[in-house]
Amino acid sequence: xxxxxxxxxxxxxxxxxxxxxxxxxxxxxxxxxxxxxxxxxxxxxxxxxxxxxxxxxxxxxxxxxxxxxxxxxxxxxxxxxxxxxxxxxxxxxxxxxxxxxxxxxxxxxxxxxxxxxxxxxxxxxxxxxxxxxxxxxxxxxxxxxxxxxxxxxxxxxxxxxxxxxxxxxxxxxxxxxxxxxxxxxxxxxxxxxxxxxxxxxxxxxxxxxxxxxxxxxxxxxxxxxxxxxxxxxxxxxxxxxxxxxxxxxxxxxxxxxxxxxxxxxxxxxxxxxxxxxxxxxxxxxxxxxxxxxxxxxxxxxxxxxxxxxxxxxxxxxxxxxxxxxxxxxxxxxxxxxxxxxxxxxxxxxxxxxxxxxxx
Length: 359
Description:
By secondary structure, the chain is of the alpha/beta class. 42% of the residues lie in helices and 16% in strands. Strands 1-2-4-3-5-8-6-7 form an 8-stranded mixed beta sheet, with helices on both faces. A hairpin with a 2-residue loop joins strand 1 (28-34) and strand 2 (37-47). The radius of gyration is 19 Å and the shape is globular.
């Protein structure tokens, strides 16, 4: 297929193609409706390998509006399995649209206005707290009014970046907060439906596999069309070393300060590290860059205001379109390149699990 043909027009087409491709691949398929709307589901395709064989997991749509790219990767992956281009000596688990509500409505957040990648808190962590830096920016980030094309947000953002630095702004704004329910990067007041489904079902999906490599597809951070593997482990971690040995030093960012990544709380990756602490579990965020960070933040800010204060106003469609562009650019060049890179990353991880299983 042409790489562009893997992209679906919306969630419902994406889900239909995922389920049909899974069945054609001989996968076991499971569907889990979310509480707010039973027509919206997290769908899972499981392609078993030999008993206790390593497993490669590919998940998509934790941030709903980012779902089209991860879904396209999953379709490509199942096509490769059908055509014998991926080894059957390992198992595969594909998790489609972890945030189906956000996928449908083109939102980064879920049905509770929660950033799911800040909602995976352990039982010992409460859903409380907010970075001091976020409080100082809160009024600017979350105005209680519809957006306007003529606001001076960009000028303010560049001034703050010049004063504090990009990394400090990212840490203050995007770490995750639990005090402003209508605000950006809200992690929730309790476990959300999607997080609960994963907590209750994930161990069954990977079965008895002791060695697991997990790629979670995201977009929006980094240079346009380029990717980084973000591993939330210290630089000396065996997980970081494994990915760097496979992809090279420059392609992998550990938990320290880096150009692309930033510290965050309640993430999917941190949760898997704790949940599967008895296994060799290698989680990495496969992050593809889109537009400059200020443009992405401006788009998140505008769409969030539309959702809360002008949801049914068609004059605000520009904000919704801009958000989609910031997380899945329409550029054929971008889509072709990122599909090629995704396929190469998947093939490398699968081959490494076959030839040199995780130690």
